[in-house]
Specification:
Layout lengths: L1 H19 L3 E2 L2 E3 L3 E3 L1 H10 L3 H10 L3 E11 L8 E6 L8 E9 L5 E3 L4 E2 L2 E2 L15 E10 L5 E2 L3 E6 L5 E3 L4 E10 L1 H22 L3 E3 L2 E4 L5 E4 L1 E4 L4 E6 L6 H12 L7 E6 H6 L8 E5 L2 H17 L5
Parallel strand pairs: 19-20, 20-21
Antiparallel strand pairs: 1-14, 2-3, 4-14, 5-12, 6-7, 6-10, 8-9, 10-11, 12-13, 15-18, 16-17, 18-19
């Protein structure tokens, strides 16, 4: 059952990617949900999976190429991104620090702490009494130092520290979780091929769920004496159904028409064409030589297929 659900989740994700036309999937950060991939998040949750697991499964299939996108610090206790960043003394660990900006007044050459030159009218030079003006024009910054108010240490590189606003944990860089997140580039040449394979697998799983045998690919005998290639044959050992599947892509319409064409010569009791709803409405309104089955999602297709197999093989319904 879990594999059935995974197949559906994988196909629906490819369906979403195909319909969106995206060439790359990038993450967004949500304080409530964490790192999410919008194209896969809803689908993965629907079937009970993490979207990262679904995306990594598509990487294994060759549909997506994975590469580093960004990295973040998260709480080592609860995994939250809700963090307050702090600075601490590298000697004693105190967060009670004072920052000093050392500057040089260009016009008179005086050098001293910028903070000591602050007045109600702005920064004024201690030596000549003139306003410092803008940074880079009236004065230049020579460097910045931090002084620890607890132990007196002076340093230019304080250590980063954090406080989680979700659980209250305080921790430093040594205990922080460092999470690397990835982007996924769509391999368009592989997507269509793998999408069809997953759709075929979906039919096979629906058939096996009803105790039937599925063979793929298969050959359907024709009235003319020629055999026609079909995607799947489903049988109970006596009766059989031939199925062709169509993925929602730019060539879906032509694939559906090709399936109709060969169906006119097939000497089968039932030839089913499983295709996207839009294609069925425009092209596969029904005919004497085939049964059109529409779908908008893998879950819908799986449910309709099981019902078809149940009625045809166990309900005694024949065309």
């Amino acid at each position: 059952m879990k594999r059935d659900k995974l197949t559906q989740a994988l196909y629906d994700t490819l369906l979403e990617i195909s319909r969106s036309g995206r060439s790359e999937l990038t993450p967004t950060i949500s304080y409530t949900a964490g790192i999410i991939y919008p194209d896969a998040f809803r689908i993965a949750r629907k079937y009970g999976f993490r979207e990262v697991d679904v995306l990594n499964s598509l990487v294994k299939l060759g549909v997506l190429d994975k590469s580093p996108y960004d990295s973040f610090v998260t709480c080592p206790k609860c995994g939250s991104f809700r963090l307050l960043s702090k600075l601490q003394c590298p000697r004693c660990g105190s967060k009670n620090l004072r920052r000093t900006t050392l500057v040089s007044h260009i016009s008179c050459g005086y050098t001293g702490p910028l903070e000591d030159m602050a007045t109600s009218e702005g920064y004024v030079c201690k030596k000549c009494g003139k306003p410092l003006g803008k940074e880079g024009e009236g004065y230049i910054v020579l460097g910045r130092l931090f002084t620890c108010e607890e132990c007196g240490a002076r340093f230019d590189s304080p250590l980063p520290a954090y406080k989680c606003t979700s659980c209250g944990l305080e921790f430093d860089y040594r205990n922080a979780n460092y999470v690397v997140v990835y982007k996924y580039r769509v391999n368009e040449k592989v997507l269509k091929q793998k999408a069809k394979q997953l759709l075929v697998e979906l039919v096979e799983r629906a058939a096996r769920a009803e105790g039937l045998i599925a063979r793929s690919p298969a050959q359907a005998p024709g009235k003319s004496g020629y055999s026609h290639p079909v995607d799947i044959e489903v049988t109970d050992g006596k009766e059989r159904i031939y199925l062709d599947v169509v993925h929602d892509s730019a060539t879906a319409m032509s694939e559906a028409l090709a399936a109709i064409g060969k169906g006119s010569d097939m000497a089968a009791n039932l030839h089913v064409i499983l295709a996207p709803s839009d294609v069925v409405k425009k092209t596969l309104r029904g005919g004497e030589n085939f049964k059109a089955m529409s779908y908008d999602s893998a879950e819908e297709a799986y449910s309709k297929l099981k019902q078809l197999f149940r009625e045809y093989f166990k309900g005694g319904k024949r065309r």
